[in-house]
Amino acid sequence: MSFLLPNPLPGTAAAVLGEACVASVGYHDLTPGPTTVEVTDGRLVLTRPQNESGYLFVPWPVEPFGTLVVATTTLRERDEPYRLLVELARGKLNQVRTQTAEWQSIGLRTAPEFERAILDASRQFGRAVLAPTPAESDALATRALEQAHALADQLAREYTAQMLSTRHKDEGQLDTRFAARTLRPPRRAAAEEYTRAFTAASVSFRWRDIEPNESQYDWAEPDAAVAAACAAGLPVTIGPVIDLSAGMIPGWAAGWAADLPTLAACMCDFLETAINRYKSDVRRWVVCAGFNHADALGLVDDDRLRLAFRLFEAAAQVDSGLELILSVAQPWGEYLATDKQTISPLTFPDDLIRAGVRLSAVELEVRAGVRPRGSLPRDLLDTARLLDVFGMLGLPLEVVLSLPSSDEPDREAEQGQSVWHPGWRARPSPEGQAEWGASFAALALCWPQVRTVTWDHWSDAELHLVPHSGLFDASGRAKPLLARLRALRTAHLEPEQ
């Protein structure tokens, strides 16, 4: 497929076109396949091994939202190029119209002004298609694309508000767990802030810090964090216990790269040791994370699937009554646009379920604007569709959210993780983090199948994965997001203690 680019090409767009990819028709999760991208002679050219129709996904600057991944409708392969902005506007407008009709069929009420705005955007799109010159077409399509995104945002927020209202009428205050991940117990003043904002505790640690040398453990920090959570009366989740991100595995274990039996033995031993230590107080465990995404330790896709199976099997053998959770990285599947990996984010847990693994829930990492572990930025409507797709597994869902509040160097962040700069309308800020975090947390809370919403992580003073994504900065000052999350807890969850 090829697409005619606007002239002049926006500078931000030029920097992100290499992230474009194509998803084949027929897959519910719309994950991409291996795609070769070339920009030449004012065209975006995408080549794939198979010849079939598909959806184009491409990051594109959309005012006033910044750079977001935008999708076309289904396009067939042909010699004639498509006009990129027309197809992006068509795709987003189609998504809004389709989702509006679907939600209206289950009771969503939309205002007459919203319906008129959809008609106006549709007319704007029609003028873009019929425009006599490329410049006019691109200008009109840009306006239609912006209108469609504004409508998508409005639709998702209205759905969130009405769904929360409906659930409150049926259930009262929601019992969804609301947490932030910590490595150590917050100090006294911060501990009070934690219990005001959250209803549950989430304790995380890095294997390399707990067992820096084989069979030599240091449990001081997780011991204190679990004890503090129990003292506060908060239900506790521990994990992910094994994370395949770079820097999470101790050096002595990483030395067994590509040796699946030995790696499995080492990981199962650590997991069993952790569970046996805390199982009297902690019944919920995120067993592993990043296994669907990480190209690590010389393990191919099938190796990581087998390894995950072994870990869940080992945990269940320690205590068959535990709740065991799989965490899925990059749930939109951007990593599949290369030919290195083949198992989609939806297929990975499905394969484990079919193999007999008893999963209590699937956790989705919605980490926006960070690479390589995070995802490219999506809007609320795309995230709603993601929750729908993973709902097809028939399991409870858990959502982990993170977004940087700064692009300055972060000494405590995991090396190799960095802010994806083209994705920002302006530089990352605490205010931007607060608006994004509150909006996406509310969307997750309204979803009946989501039983836990976790902000990852609590403080930038602790070791963490995503740069500057904590609720407190490194000097101990609370960021605006903390107050927004506390307001969500007060409005929708059990009251403060």
TrEMBL record:
Gene3D superfamilies: Glycosidases (3.20.20.80)
Domain of life the protein comes from: Bacteria
Span list, region Disordered: 406-427
Protein name: GH10 domain-containing protein
